[in-house]
C-alpha cells in the first residue's frame, strides 16, 4: 500500500480495482450493524486511501473518489430504488440509474476528499507527512456537513449498537464518531507504510496511536454510562401507550374501499389497540403515528369529516387521557403535516384542549417542492410531488401527567429527526422528552426503517433526552438517554406497547449546547491546512 508512482498502467488499474472492491465490500459489511462485521469500519478505508495516494493526477484522484461514491451507494442503499419504485411507480431500472447518477453528489465526501488528499500530497511532498491525512479527515467530515444528503448518513452511525462507543456522540454527534473512524484508518495505513519502509518498530507506534484513540473513546463512553445510570430515577418520567397498527398503502385502500371507509377502519383499529393499552396500565398519554388521520383535523372538508373530528375529541374526553396523533393542519389555504395534541378539558364537559406542531423539515419533492422549481409542468411530469408547507421551526409543547405535573415535549415528525441542530434547539427549550411520529411504510421490508431508527438513537444521545418513537409500520421504540432501545415494535408488524419513559438528570452535552458544530469547524480547518500547504509548496518551489 506504499505510495509508488512506478508500475505499468494495467498493473495500477488492477490494483485500484482490487482496492475499490475491498473497501466497498468492507463498508457494506460494516453497514449491516452486526457483530463481528462492525470491526471492519476501523480498516475499511485503508485500501482506498492507499490507492488515492498512488494517483498521479487530480483527475485520477477524482475518478477514484467518484467510483467509490457510486459503489458505496450501490451496496449500502440498494434498498432505495425498490422503495422509490413503490412510491412513484417509476421503473426500477430508472430508479437505479437515478441513484447511481446522483451518487457523486449525495456522497460528495469521497471525490472531494480524494482530490484534497492528492493536492495536499503534491504540495508538501515528504516535508509534512501528517498534513495530507489530517486534511483528508477534516475534508471528509466538513463536506458531509456541507453537501446535500437525503438520508444524512455518515460512517459513524454504524457504531450505534456499541454501547460504549456511541456515547461519544454527545460531543459531536455521529460525525464525531466518523472522525474517529477516519483517524484510525489513517493510523493503520501509516503503520502499513512504515512497516514496509522502516520496519516493525516504526509501524508499532502508529498501531499504538490507533489503539489509544479507540480506548479513549471507549473510556469516555464508560464514564458517561456510569453517570447516566447513577442519575436515572426509579419513577418513570411518563407512561406512554404507543400504537403501531401497520395499516399502509392508504391511496390503494382508498381506491378499493373509498376514503371514508379507510379512515373508519384506521380509527376503529387504533381505538381498539388503545383501549387494550388502557386496560393494561394507567397511561399519561396515548400516541398514534404520523398522518394516521389522513385529513385535516379541526378544519373538516365535509360533514362526515366534522363527525370524525368530534368522535376523536369524544374519545379523548371519555377516556380522560391525552392523545397525540399525526394529521394535517390548514391555515390560509396552506396545508401542513402536523402532530395534534388533544388533552381532556380541565372543566367538566368541556371540549379537549388542542395544541399543534407543524413539521418543518419536509422531504424534497415527495412532501414539498421548492418555489424556484415548482411548476404545473413539473407536477404533471411527477404527479407524486407533495404540496405541504414547512412549519415555523423548533418548538416544544406542554403535556400534563396524571399527577398534574407539566412536562415539556419536543415533537418531531419523520424527517425532522435527521437534523441534529434542529433537535438540539428543541431540546434546549427545556424539553423533558423527544417525541417522534413517523410514517416509514414506503420503506417497509428494507433497511430504511433501521436507518431512521439509528438517527433517532443518536438524537437521544446528543441531547441526553429519552425518546418515544411511534410509527405506522415500524420501527416504533422507546429509547433512553444512553441510546439503548428499551422496547420496540418491529418493522411491518402490528402491536401496541406500554412505554415507561425513564427519567435521568445529567449534565448538558456539547452536542446539545452547540448542535451540529463539528462539520463547519472541520471544513474551516481543512481549508486553512490546504491553503497553508499550497503556499508552503509554492515557497519551496520558488
From TrEMBL:
Keyword Transferase found: yes
Annotated metabolic or biological route of this protein: Protein modification; lipoprotein biosynthesis (N-acyl transfer)
Domain CN hydrolase: residue ranges: 243-508
E.C. designation(s): 2.3.1.269
Membrane association type: Multi-pass membrane protein
Coiled-coil regions listed: none
Membrane-spanning intervals of the chain: 25-49, 61-81, 93-116, 128-147, 172-195, 207-223, 517-536
Alphabetized InterPro entries for the sequence: Apolipo_AcylTrfase (IPR004563), C-N_Hydrolase (IPR003010), C-N_Hydrolase_sf (IPR036526), LNT_N (IPR045378)
Role: Catalyzes the phospholipid dependent N-acylation of the N-terminal cysteine of apolipoprotein, the last step in lipoprotein maturation.
Name used for this protein in its record: Apolipoprotein N-acyltransferase
Name of the gene encoding the protein in the UniProt record: lnt
Amino acid at each position: 500500500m506504499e505510495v509508488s508512482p512506478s508500475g505499468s498502467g494495467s498493473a495500477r488499474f488492477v490494483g485500484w480495482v482490487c482496492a475499490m472492491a475491498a473497501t466497498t465490500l468492507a463498508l457494506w459489511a460494516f453497514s449491516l450493524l452486526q457483530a463481528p462485521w462492525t470491526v471492519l469500519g476501523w480498516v475499511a478505508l485503508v485500501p482506498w486511501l492507499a490507492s488515492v495516494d498512488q494517483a498521479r493526477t487530480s483527475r485520477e484522484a477524482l475518478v477514484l473518489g467518484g467510483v467509490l461514491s457510486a459503489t458505496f451507494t450501490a451496496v449500502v442503499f440498494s434498498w432505495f430504488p425498490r422503495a422509490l419504485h413503490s412510491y412513484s411507480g417509476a421503473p426500477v431500472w430508472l430508479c437505479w440509474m437515478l441513484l447511481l447518477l446522483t451518487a457523486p453528489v449525495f456522497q460528495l465526501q469521497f471525490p472531494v476528499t480524494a482530490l484534497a488528499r492528492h493536492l495536499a500530497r503534491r504540495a508538501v511532498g515528504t516535508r509534512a507527512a501528517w498534513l495530507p491525512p489530517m486534511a483528508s479527515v477534516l475534508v471528509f467530515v466538513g463536506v458531509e456537513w456541507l453537501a446535500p444528503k437525503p438520508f444524512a448518513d455518515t460512517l459513524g452511525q454504524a457504531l450505534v449498537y456499541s454501547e460504549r462507543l456511541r456515547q461519544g456522540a454527545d460531543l459531536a454527534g455521529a460525525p464525531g464518531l466518523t472522525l474517529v473512524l477516519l483517524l484510525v484508518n489513517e493510523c493503520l495505513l501509516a503503520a502499513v507504510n512504515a512497516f514496509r519502509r522502516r520496519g516493525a518498530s516504526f509501524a508499532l507506534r502508529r498501531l499504538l496511536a490507533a489503539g489509544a484513540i479507540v480506548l479513549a473513546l471507549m473510556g469516555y463512553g464508560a464514564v458517561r454510562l456510569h453517570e447516566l445510570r447513577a442519575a436515572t430515577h426509579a419513577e418513570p418520567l411518563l407512561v406512554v401507550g404507543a400504537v403501531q397498527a401497520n395499516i399502509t398503502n392508504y391511496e390503494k385502500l382508498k381506491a378499493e374501499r373509498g376514503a371514508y371507509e379507510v379512515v373508519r377502519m384506521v380509527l376503529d383499529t387504533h381505538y381498539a389497540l388503545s383501549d387494550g393499552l388502557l386496560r393494561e396500565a394507567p397511561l399519561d398519554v396515548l400516541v398514534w403515528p404520523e398522518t394516521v388521520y389522513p385529513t385535516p383535523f379541526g378544519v373538516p372538508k365535509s360533514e362526515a369529516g366534522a363527525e370524525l373530528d368530534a368522535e376523536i375529541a369524544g374519545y379523548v374526553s371519555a377516556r380522560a387521557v391525552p392523545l397525540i396523533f399525526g394529521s394535517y393542519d390548514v391555515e390560509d389555504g396552506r396545508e401542513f403535516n402536523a402532530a395534534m395534541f388533544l388533552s381532556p378539558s380541565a372543566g367538566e364537559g368541556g371540549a379537549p384542549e388542542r395544541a399543534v406542531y407543524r413539521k418543518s423539515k419536509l422531504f424534497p419533492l415527495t412532501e414539498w417542492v421548492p418555489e424556484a422549481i415548482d411548476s404545473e409542468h413539473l407536477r404533471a411530469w411527477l404527479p407524486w410531488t407533495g404540496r405541504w408547507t414547512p412549519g415555523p421551526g423548533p418548538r416544544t409543547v406542554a403535556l400534563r401527567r396524571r399527577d398534574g405535573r407539566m412536562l415539556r415535549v419536543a415533537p418531531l415528525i419523520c424527517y425532522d429527526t435527521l437534523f441534529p441542530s434542529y433537535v438540539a434547539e428543541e431540546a434546549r427549550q427545556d424539553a423533558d422528552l423527544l417525541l417522534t411520529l413517523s410514517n416509514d411504510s414506503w420503506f417497509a421490508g428494507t433497511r430504511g426503517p433501521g436507518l431512521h431508527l439509528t438517527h433517532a438513537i443518536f438524537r437521544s444521545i446528543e441531547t441526553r433526552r429519552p425518546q418515544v418513537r411511534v410509527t405506522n409500520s415500524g420501527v416504533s421504540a422507546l429509547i433512553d438517554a444512553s441510546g439503548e432501545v428499551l422496547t420496540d415494535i418491529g418493522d411491518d408488524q402490528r402491536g401496541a406497547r406500554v412505554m415507561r419513559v425513564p427519567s435521568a438528570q445529567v449534565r448538558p452535552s456539547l452536542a446539545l449546547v452547540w448542535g451540529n458544530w463539528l462539520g463547519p469547524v472541520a471544513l474551516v480547518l481543512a481549508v486553512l491546512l490546504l491553503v497553508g500547504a499550497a503556499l508552503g509548496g509554492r515557497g519551496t518551489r520558488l
